């Protein structure tokens, strides 16, 4: 209160002295007084008190010319913080002389200056106000909040009416400029929800953005989501009030040295609690801004398209479908409409507990925002997920996490709707939690999401991309609890893994990775790597090469998500060196233990078919034609993904005791005589019918002892809609095999028809194709890790067929959005491929799977 007292000392006589004393009393009364505690009531009282004082300064006698004293900006909204400027406009009709107007202005301005109150003032006629507003967007924004104080009220009303009409007429041209002002502020001042010393007004999500949302609403183009917005703005104003009073300065920056005092003034526990309140309010405003500006863009695009559409349509005729009315299916119950992901009209959130995750995964994978009405509908009506989650929910969650940077806006939408709290109860403890280490650029919760984003680019390095993404999301989850966050996080990670639906073995791995997520970087930078004891210590904690590769990838993702100072070429080289030494030690230990199951190269062994599959094989051999069956998938024992060549006994611990995981989709079994082109033919037919392959096994059997039959056991799910009839699948397969159906052409036509060139899809990590060293004594093992996509397996099959190799067996699995496949191939005469040819095959296949460049947005699709 020192600065306030100094600026208003003097006698308590006259209008200014009385105002100064009343102002001091209002701002200095105990916070327990419910009439004057920080908040809208006190700001309104301060504005009313100031109105009364300024009215007395202007005087009540009739004026010639007509004049009006008008409050604009924050004062116009009736919101005065203790050290806020007074934004005033002296409006006149232009009939008075310059001396008369100047005298009236001096009567008001000088007493304000005498009290040491900052003043932003102007003197204008109605015409001058219009001209200035037309030339200066910021002036126009301030005048939108014009409020009459004293003088001729009709003059103020005329100003407000004309400026609002002007704003609405010019909104299509001015709103994009207003949006750019906000983006420029964000570039200069950063994002309020993540700053340790935030600017409450200028940073993204601050008071300026809240004011911009009012201007958008005044344009009648769009309106901001109302839920929580006014409360968020009031929270930031309350904090600014306390900041002004504790510092005695007109500042909007919440400096570190002031945070404890401000927190105390607001009755909060500490500075962290204060920042968390700031961040929560700022996120509400930021999300509302994103939604609002997206809607503004949609409306403006629609308006711009109407004249062109009328011109194209010409005269009257049948109704044409406007582009904004098209709805493209993305997943079951989820469609794209006008650049957003919305719920299908047939969606039933109350009967479909996986729908929130399915919609989120579809939005992130498509690089589209999840529409706010869809989020609200999901939050209000979605049935709760059972615990543990069903397999489909787990897969969709992993797909969401693996979408890269497009995960972030979808996650923010789910958080704004309260969906994340329902899915992950422990998330509440880390939401908006500040990290006072200057190396960190994000709050704890956003850091976890950013780590998953970074990890999504590293999924080709690991055998279990699903475990990597979950570990990335949970590695710092223990920071919401007291004590060592790694120790607390291990327990939470195990519990969450069980909740999400992972088996005990996977939960054990996740717990280990979270517990030791700092192990590699701390050891590499602080210990002697030439000391065998160091390597033995790390190897003992890690336990297996599979866990080691997860830790190595998580270490890099964690550092990259922390900030630019947390990762460097030097650190990366040290971690790589340590990981290589530990991997060698783990390999040597496994060899010494004689673990042929976990460490020896995989062998191609005859597939053990079920009785039902054997019957199909017999029928296929008898008829020399394809036969197939669709039925509910049966749970299978937990097993590592294909190609895990270094899985030790510690990885497999508890596998026998693990409950059989719930399968995703239905089981499709196909048997047909061995012939070239089977894999691309079958996978192409499945893609044509929009069936997503979750896993697959291809093998050869000899049911009658007289010839081999190919047996393909697929686990598939419909991308959307119902499953096709088995007979229809068989008919199309026969047509593909006899050459009457060009499956590649049909898939290309459909892809072109559904391509949306106006936007770019998320950039997935490039595919990785390798030759497994010593993979099999009977065949060469080609391992493929790529982004799952419709027709991916068809493209792989075509490439292998084109290379002139024979696929003896295949093991296909999809983990979230990642395909992890292994193909056992031989040359035309059988046997493994020569090393050089195998390496060339891997290179050619990797090149064939490389994503094609996005089409030019200016070019039409197809």
Write the layout of secondary structure elements.
Elements: H1 2-7, H2 14-28, H3 40-58, E1 67-71, H4 73-76, E2 86-92, H5 98-114, E3 119-125, H6 126-135, H7 137-143, E4 147-151, H8 153-189, H9 207-219, H10 229-247, H11 256-265, H12 271-313, E5 327-331, E6 334-337, E7 340-343, H13 355-366, H14 372-381, H15 391-401, H16 407-416, H17 419-423, H18 444-456, H19 465-474, H20 485-500, H21 504-515, H22 519-526, H23 532-542, H24 545-562, H25 569-593, H26 611-623, E8 627-632, H27 649-652, E9 666-673, H28 678-688, E10 691-701, E11 709-718, H29 726-737, H30 743-754, E12 768-771, E13 780-787, H31 792-802, E14 806-815, E15 818-826, H32 835-849
Parallel strand pairs: 2-3
Antiparallel strand pairs: 1-2, 1-4, 5-6, 6-7, 8-9, 9-11, 10-11, 10-14, 12-13, 13-15, 14-15
């Amino acid at each position: 209160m020192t600065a306030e007292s100094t600026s208003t000392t003097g006698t308590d006589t006259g209008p200014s002295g009385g105002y100064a004393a009343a102002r001091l009393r209002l701002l200095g009364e105990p916070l327990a007084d419910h009439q004057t505690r920080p908040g809208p009531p006190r700001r309104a009282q301060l504005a009313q008190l100031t109105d009364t004082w300024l009215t007395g300064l202007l005087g009540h006698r009739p004026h010639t010319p007509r004049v009006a004293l008008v409050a604009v900006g924050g004062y116009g909204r009736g919101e005065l913080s203790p050290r806020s400027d007074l934004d005033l406009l002296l409006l006149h009709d232009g009939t008075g002389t310059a001396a008369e107007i100047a005298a009236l202005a001096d009567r008001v301005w000088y007493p304000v200056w005498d009290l040491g109150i900052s003043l932003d003032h102007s003197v204008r006629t109605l015409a001058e106000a219009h001209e200035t507003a037309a030339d200066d967007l910021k002036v126009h924004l301030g005048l939108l909040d014009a409020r009459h104080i004293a003088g001729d009220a009709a003059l103020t009303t005329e100003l407000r009416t004309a400026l609002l009409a002007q704003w609405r007429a010019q909104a299509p041209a001015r709103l994009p400029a207003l949006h750019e002002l906000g983006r420029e502020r964000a570039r200069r001042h950063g994002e309020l929800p993540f700053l340790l010393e935030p600017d409450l007004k200028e940073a993204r999500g601050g008071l300026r953005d809240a004011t911009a949302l009012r201007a958008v609403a005044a344009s009648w183009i769009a309106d901001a989501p109302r839920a929580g917005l006014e409360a968020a703005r009031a929270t930031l104003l309350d904090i600014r009030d306390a900041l002004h009073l504790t510092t005695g300065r007109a500042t909007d920056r919440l400096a570190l040295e002031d945070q404890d005092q401000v927190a105390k003034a607001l009755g909060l526990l500490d500075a962290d609690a204060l920042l968390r309140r700031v961040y929560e309010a700022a996120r509400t405003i930021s999300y509302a801004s994103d939604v609002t500006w997206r809607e503004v863009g949609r409306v403006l695009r629609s308006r711009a398209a109407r004249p062109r559409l009328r011109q194209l349509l010409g005269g009257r005729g049948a109704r044409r479908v406007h582009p904004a009315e098209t709805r493209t299916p993305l997943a079951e119950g989820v469609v794209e409409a006008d650049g957003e992901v919305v719920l299908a009209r047939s969606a039933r959130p109350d009967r479909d507990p996986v729908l929130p995750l399915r919609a989120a995964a579809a939005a992130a994978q498509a690089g589209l925002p999840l529409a706010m009405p869809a989020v609200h509908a999901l939050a209000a009506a979605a049935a709760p997920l059972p615990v543990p989650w069903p397999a489909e929910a787990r897969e969709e969650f992993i797909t969401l996490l693996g979408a890269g940077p497009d995960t972030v806006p979808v996650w923010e939408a789910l958080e704004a709707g309260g969906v994340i709290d329902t899915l992950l109860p422990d998330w509440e403890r880390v939401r908006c939690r500040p990290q006072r280490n200057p190396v960190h650029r994000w709050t704890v919760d956003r850091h976890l999401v950013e780590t998953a984003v970074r990890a999504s680019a590293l999924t080709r390095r690991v055998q279990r991309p699903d475990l990597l993404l979950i570990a990335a999301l949970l590695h710092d989850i223990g920071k919401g609890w007291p004590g060592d966050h790694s120790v607390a996080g291990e327990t939470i990670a195990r519990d969450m893994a069980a909740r999400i639906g992972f088996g005990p073995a996977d939960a054990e791995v996740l717990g280990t990775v979270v517990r030791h997520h700092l192990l590699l970087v701390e050891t590499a930078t602080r210990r002697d790597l030439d000391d065998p004891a160091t390597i033995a210590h790390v190897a003992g904690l890690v336990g297996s090469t599979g866990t080691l590769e997860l830790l190595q990838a998580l270490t890099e993702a964690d550092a990259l998500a922390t900030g630019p100072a947390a990762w460097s070429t030097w650190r990366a080289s040290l971690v790589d060196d340590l990981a290589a030494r530990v991997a060698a030690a783990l390999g040597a230990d496994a060899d010494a233990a004689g673990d042929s199951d976990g460490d020896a190269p995989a062998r191609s062994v005859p597939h053990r078919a079920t009785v039902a599959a054997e019957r199909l094989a017999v029928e296929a051999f008898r008829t020399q034609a394809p036969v197939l069956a669709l039925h509910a998938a049966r749970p299978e024992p937990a097993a590592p993904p294909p190609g895990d060549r270094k899985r030790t006994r510690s990885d497999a611990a508890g596998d026998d005791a693990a409950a059989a995981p719930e399968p995703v989709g239905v089981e499709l079994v196909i048997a047909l005589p061995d012939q070239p082109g089977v894999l691309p033919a079958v996978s192409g037919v499945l893609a044509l019918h929009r069936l997503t392959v979750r896993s697959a096994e291809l093998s050869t059997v000899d049911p009658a002892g007289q010839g081999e039959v190919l047996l393909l056991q697929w686990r598939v799910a419909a991308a959307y809609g119902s499953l096709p009839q088995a007979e229809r699948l068989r008919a199309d397969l026969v047509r593909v095999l006899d050459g009457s159906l060009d499956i590649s052409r049909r898939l290309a036509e459909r892809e072109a028809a559904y391509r949306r060139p106006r936007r770019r899809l998320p950039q997935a990590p490039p595919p990785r194709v390798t030759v497994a060293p010593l993979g099999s004594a009977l065949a060469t093992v080609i391992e493929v890790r790529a982004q799952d996509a419709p027709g991916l397996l068809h493209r792989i099959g075509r490439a292998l067929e084109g290379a002139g190799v024979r696929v003896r067996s295949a093991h296909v699995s999809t983990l979230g959005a990642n395909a992890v496949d292994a193909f056992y191939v031989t040359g035309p005469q059988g046997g493994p491929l020569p090393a050089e040819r195998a390496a060339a095959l891997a290179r050619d296949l990797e090149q064939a799977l490389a994503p094609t460049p996005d089409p030019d947005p200016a070019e039409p699709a197809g």
